[in-house]
Amino acid sequence: MSVNNTLKPYVIGLDLGGTNSVFGIVDSRGEIKATTAIKTGGFATAEAYVDAAVAALQPIIEQVGGIDTIKAMGIGAPNANYYNGTIEFAPNLPWAHDGIVPLAKMFSERLSDIPVAMTNDANAAALGEMVYGVARGMKNFIVITLGTGVGSGIVVNGQLLYGHDGFAGELGHVTMVRGAEGRSCGCGRTGCLEAYCSATGVARTARELLAKTSRESILREMNPEDITSLDVSIAAGKGDALAKEIYDFTGHMLGEACADFAAFSSPEAFIFFGGMVKAGELIMKPIREAYEQHVMPVFRGKAQFLVSGLDGASAAVLGASAVGWEIQ
C-alpha cells in the first residue's frame, strides 16, 4: 500500500556535477540517510545516464524502505531550468551540451512517477541555506558560491528569483571591468565578476601580479601556471604580503559587487559558500569594507555577511534535497 504523500519521510537529492553525480536520501531534519554516486560523463545519451543513475539509486531506496517512503526528488545541476525541468545546452555535460534534456520527467518516469524538480546549483544552495542553514527564518538574502566559477541564488520575499525563463540570478556575470582591459570569461563576455573572484580568477590575479612586480613571495617558488587559489590562501595565512594583496583585491571587488546587488533586492544577508571562503577574514574583511564604502547610504549597515552553515561535504546534496521539499 502506498504511503500518503504528506507522510513520506524522505526526498532524494542529486548534486549533478560535471564530473560526479552524488545522490542522497534526506529526511526533513537535513540528515542524509544513505548516499551513492556515479560518474556524470561517459554516457552517450541522457537515457544511458538516467539508466545508470536509477540502477545506483535502487539499493539505497530499498535501504530506507522502498520508493513508497520517497516524497520527491530535487536536482541541482548546471544549466538547469526550474520551470521546465530541463538541462539546456550544458557545456560540461556530454549528453546535454547540444540540446535540451527533460531530465526531471525522465527521472520521474523511472521512479514510480514521484515528483521531480530541478534548478541550478547556486539556487539549490540558496534553498539549502533557507531550509537547513544560516538563512533559516530569512526571506530576503543572496547566496554567492565561490568555486571554479561565481554563482548566486537570490531569495526575495521568501521565494527564489527565477525570472521569466528560469535563468535569472547570474550575478557572477555582471560586468566589473569594461573595455579592452576586462578579462575574458567562459560565458563569452569580458570583465565578468567570475573572471576575477572565482578560484580560477584568484589564481589568474596571482600570476598577473607576480609577472608585473619583483616583490618577494612564497608563490614565486611555484610554477606560475600551477598556482591555485588554495596556494594563495596558504601563502596569505603564512603572512605573505603579496598573497594578502591578492585577497584584498578579490574581496574588494566582491564587496563592490554586493553594494550594487543591494540596490535591487535589499537583502538582509549575503551568504558565502565554497572553498575560497575557507580563507576566512582574509576574504571576508575586504568584502565588508568595500561594501560599506560603496553601498548607497540607505542600505549601509543593514546587511549581514555570513559564511554558509552547511557542511561542505554534504551541502550540495542538502541543497538539491531542499528543491524536492519545496514541491507542493
State the gist of this model.
By secondary structure, this protein is α/β, with parallel strands linked by helices. It has nine helices and 13 strands. The two termini are 22 Å apart.
Unreliable segments (pLDDT under 50, ≥5 consecutive)? none
Rg (C-alpha, Å) = 21 Å
User: Can you count the helices?
Assistant: 9
Number of strands: 13
Termini gap? 22 Å
In spatial order, strands of the major sheet run 3-2-1-4-8
**N-to-C SSE string, H for helix and E for strand:** EEEHEEEEHEHEEEHHHHEHEH
Q: Tell me about the biggest sheet? A: 5 strands, mixed
Coarse shape: globular
Mean pLDDT: 93
Q: In percent, how helical is the residue content?
A: 25-40%
Structural class category: alpha/beta
What does this structure look like?
The protein has 328 residues and is an alpha/beta fold. The chain has nine helices and 13 strands. Helices cover 35% and strands 20% of the residues. The strands form three sheets. The chain has a five-stranded mixed β-sheet with strand order 3-2-1-4-8, with helices on both faces. A five-stranded mixed β-sheet has the order 11-10-9-12-13, covered by helices on one side. Helix 3 (121-132) crosses helix 9 (315-326), helix 6 packs across helix 7 (241-265) and helix 7 (241-265) packs across helix 8. The two termini are 22 Å apart. The mean pLDDT is 93.
